[in-house]
């Protein structure tokens, strides 16, 4: 069964905790709150039941600390949605370090599931060298992971990730690389702690690839 979500020129905000008792597989948009970042024409997609449930989970946990860290958040979404991202037993074989985000990336890479354009809501997004001990490394280490929330027609994407213990929305636009903001609209969020204005710390410059979720 296909559910179409038609989202154009809408304003999104971080969802409040709690969920409705009414059951539906159609993704539920969170409560609205004015923010310039959510202005824009969003690409519309058809969602099957599994993706609809996954996006509902993403909306539900926005603004909370669920998962504890970036890979913990993805693991939580995975466990709540019939292992839509990975089989934990299979993931174990791809762990080459203590970073679970890297293990997930390795699993997707091994299955030819890493790509660099045309993301869709629910897909994973990976970043490299986002920690204090890797941000200046010449070698690319996968250190962070999130999930795509919205795709805009101008090339921007919003994604939800756990950073500093909270699941929050940030942005990336590979068409406006090295640009943090245009006016009050965030094109690329800072994903590494560094001196303000250092474009090397923007999402566009730490992007390592998308991981396509099964559809």
Q: What can you tell me about this protein's structure?
A:
With about 220 residues, the chain is α+β, with helices and mostly antiparallel strands. The protein has one domain. The protein is about 20% helix and about 20% strand. It is built from four helices and ten strands, in the order ββααααββββββββ. Strand 8 and strand 9 form a beta hairpin. The radius of gyration is 16 Å and the shape is globular.
Q: Domain count, please report it.
A: 1
What is the string of helix and strand elements? EEHHHHEEEEEEEE
Instruction: Report the portion of residues in β strands.
Output: 15-25%
Helix fraction bin: 10-25%
Mean of the pLDDT scores? 86
Strand order of the largest sheet: 3-10-4-5-6-7
- Number-wise, the strands total 10
User: SS-based structural class?
Assistant: alpha+beta
Radius of gyration: 16 Å
Shape: globular
Terminal-residue CA separation: 12 Å
Low-confidence regions: 1-24, 30-34
Compute the number of helices: 4
Main sheet overview: 6 strands, antiparallel
